[in-house]
Specification:
mainly alpha; two-stranded parallel ribbon; 4 strands; 8% strand
Length: 252
């Protein structure tokens, strides 16, 4: 039951999260994988120092950046919210449990792009998964559960804008590995190293192919990002992100 989505089974999700916090073997496995990602102090360059991704400077700049973007884009956020309410029944936002820093689960907020019973219908469309029906990644081209306005939001990545609130709350950063919807218990051992930094709204894999990249390849890019992390790399990724979004390459 620990692999069930929290949207359908919130009690089981809470139980699984509590179980994992008590799972000493799993915690040690995560710590070992993180230690192998060669994180170094972002100022000193020495191993064991505070890395850029875990620095207070990145937390503060992400907070300021997210706050500024929320204020700047508030008219866009309002228009999208109204459009969602006018075109389909249900809430404006969709909160999905995601796996973030060191395997912690948190509720990631997005604009709702699917019909309200989309999670209940997931098994019925699993055979359409572009990564294969058994893959932990779940992406479908022309997903029948997507609403009319939802398709536009997904192609333009505007559905991700509410992630800015997760950045403000400290659960995410502007740049980092994308948090997964599947649980840390689903990860293979070589996947665990990506949990050594906070997840981000955008990252190296988004500007390298977005959803056309499968999870194993994403992990390679995530570990590459972690090993090379710096302020300058984050700035480069942030500058490339609008072009990746506008090209809609790999969006679904």
């Amino acid at each position: 039951m620990c692999l069930m989505d929290a949207v359908d089974y919130p009690d089981q999700e809470l139980a699984c999260s509590n179980h994992d916090r008590r799972n000493t073997a799993l915690r040690q496995q995560i710590e070992k994988a993180i230690a192998q990602t060669q994180q170094r102090g972002w100022i000193s360059g020495r191993r064991g120092g505070r890395s850029w991704s875990l620095s207070y400077t990145k937390r503060f700049t992400s907070l300021l950046g997210a706050g500024f973007l929320v204020l700047l884009l508030s008219p866009v956020l309002l228009v999208i919210a109204v459009a969602i309410k006018l075109t389909s029944p249900g809430p404006v936002f969709f909160i999905q449990q995601r796996t973030g820093f060191r395997g912690r689960r948190f509720g990631m907020i997005k604009f709702r792009t699917m019909m309200v019973n989309a999670e209940a219908l997931k098994d019925s469309v699993r055979h359409l998964n572009k990564h294969g029906p058994e893959s932990v990644d779940f992406k479908i081209d022309r997903d029948p559960r997507i609403t009319s306005i939802g398709g536009i939001l997904r192609r333009t990545s505007l559905d991700e804008l509410p992630n800015l609130f997760n950045v403000i709350w400290g659960q995410m950063r502007l740049v980092g590995p994308r948090p997964t919807s599947f649980h840390v218990r689903t990860y293979k051992e070589h996947h665990l190293g990506r949990l050594g930094v906070y997840p981000g709204i955008t990252g190296l894999w988004q500007v390298s192919g977005r959803s056309n990249v499968d999870f194993d390849d994403r992990v390679v890019l995530d570990i590459q990002y972690i090993s090379q992390q710096s302020l300058w790399l984050d700035l480069k990724i942030l500058l490339k992100t609008p072009f990746a979004v506008l090209s809609a390459h790999g969006a679904s």
